[in-house]
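Cross-check.
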Amino acid sequence: MNDIKTEQFRHRLALGAAVSAFFVFTFVLYAPLKLYIENKDVLWFNFESTLIVSIAMSVVALLLLLIITAVPKKMIHTGICCLIFAAALGLFIQGNFLNIDYGSGVLDGSEIAWKDYTTYGAINSAVWAACLAMPFAFWMVFRAQWRRILIFSSLGLVLVQVVILSSVIVQNSSHLNKVTYEVTREGIYELSEDENTIVFVLDSFDNEYLDKIKNDFPDYEKRLEGFTEYDNTLASGSGSSVALPSLLTGEVFMKETSYSSYIDSIWEDTTVYSALNKKGVDTRIFAQTDYFSGDAKDDINNIVDYMDTAGAYTSMTGTIYKYAAYTYAPHYLKQFFWMDLKTISSYRSKNAYSLNDAQFYSDYVRDQGFTYTDSYSDSLRIYNLDGAKPPYNLTKSTIKSINGTSLNDQIYGCFNCLFSMIDDLKENGKYENATIIVTANTGNKGMTQNPVLLIKEAGSVEGYEINHAPLSAFDFAPTLASKYTDNYTNYGSGKTYFDFESEATRTRYFYMNTGENANTKISQYSTRSNANDVESLRLLDNFYSTTKVSKYRLGTSLTFAMDATANQYCTQGFCATTGWRTPLAGPQSQMIVPISSIPSDAEDIHVFFDISTIHKPTKCVIYANGRQVFGAKIDKSFKESGLNFTVPSSIIEKNNKLTLRFEFPEISSSEYDLEQNKRTKTFSVESFKMYTQ
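Predicted model, tokenized:
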């Protein structure tokens, strides 16, 4: 009798394990992993985290289903197994074959008119009804074989999904690494009770602008007691993406490798901040996350891995499984799982630092200024601010104006913020012991080569001096190191701001991000003259990007940033990348994209450009292989929605080559006679993606 019961249990366990594995693999493992890969550019967490969570959830789900399917006997066991197989089959068919494009950009925030899909809903419901009826029909018609049919069907469909998932992972393996750290606002206004080094790095703030500040603030020199103005300072480069990392670390980007590899390399080496960390300096740098790699977390205290944040995995799990439920649910249930992937809750957005001078000052006032702690004896705070970077929207009171302001208001508002913070230090008795540096990543005149530089050394509290010493942004890192060690020559130029007399001469270097279209390069200049003499900058060399034109794989997101993965297809009207975006300029721009393969059943190819900046609202007409596919005025609304259009696959050439031509009829054709960087800029793009439904 016991042998019979054991044999019956084994039969129940075998069938239960097969149908449970089919359900669990389809929905709990396969669905989230495949959906993650398809939407890796939108989701904020990384693939490894998704894999870990999916495996853990799969193990738990499989154990529960094994108990549910194997313990009950006879008809209850039969009914449960049939239901689980039916649900798994319906999920498999829905997720892989039945989903449609609901027309308004599903999961991008656009509402879906569910009532417009009655016919599809009826067909979809009929398919699901067939899936639900199928295993029960097998049981009724093929009573002797139905158990084997369910077991082999379940295992076979699991195997199919294993092959598909493995292929998708291999194809996307080079794109699955995702940044999981961020620069936070943690401790942004907290200083040491004892000694502090405070650095303000203003964007695009030219040394010449100090004349405006001195005119606007009659008590300028009184408020900056103890400061020295160094008016002969050469920036490390032009453009924040080149200038800021080289200012911070002393390491320059010269195109031998990708920009992301450059960022990784400068932080994986021993930096000046490693030396400061060993000396117990609490170091916090407030700048965009893009300028750092994961290795920076070791030495910079406000850079954290947000996947270590309490609740991060809960948020991630809820997001990915709600999306899976939306994708795999029948039509009439989808609306209960509808979500907007672009606005999902993200730990990166709650405490991440972003450039916004008005918000920076508002938060400072709200927090009632600096706070001081005895938790550490020495602190370093580096604040990267918008400074004089357009568009100008800062008022003289350091409040953001939605109607825009002027350059003069912008720089006045910026210094109003600085003066308030300096006054705070004075009122709290922390000014004398503080080292304060006010500088900029670039200037804003000529080739942006002459940024502002003001320095107050610790102990200096009287007078205001002007010094003409030939300084360089490459002197910044060794200057920081020199406060704590005599071994500062390994960083940047190996010289500090204080190693040169006022009338000294030296050779200094400047690196400019130049090029256009697919021709991206860094140009190296040198000078032995005053930094404000743009004519003295002598071109020494050009360092070109090693990017080669490769065939585009549908579904891949490419950037117009420093890595310039999309720029390889640009042939006309695309300027040099400004760091995280590339402007289009002139009456016409063009891309030629060779596509690796197009599915034979694809009717349309969807094209998406993420727009970051509207330089000039203007009409744009887009042609795909000579056929018009888009026509509208590009204005600020496109910053929210992006530029979307479809290209009929029937017009793609036999060699799968797609030519996209952007025409701007409101811009005079006479601009063809101008150099490309002097033509009218229309809008800037951040990324590019083409895909089929």
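Residues 2-38 form the longest helix (37 residues). The chain has three domains: 2-178+314-343, 181-302+353-514, 548-691. Passed to J.P. for a second look.
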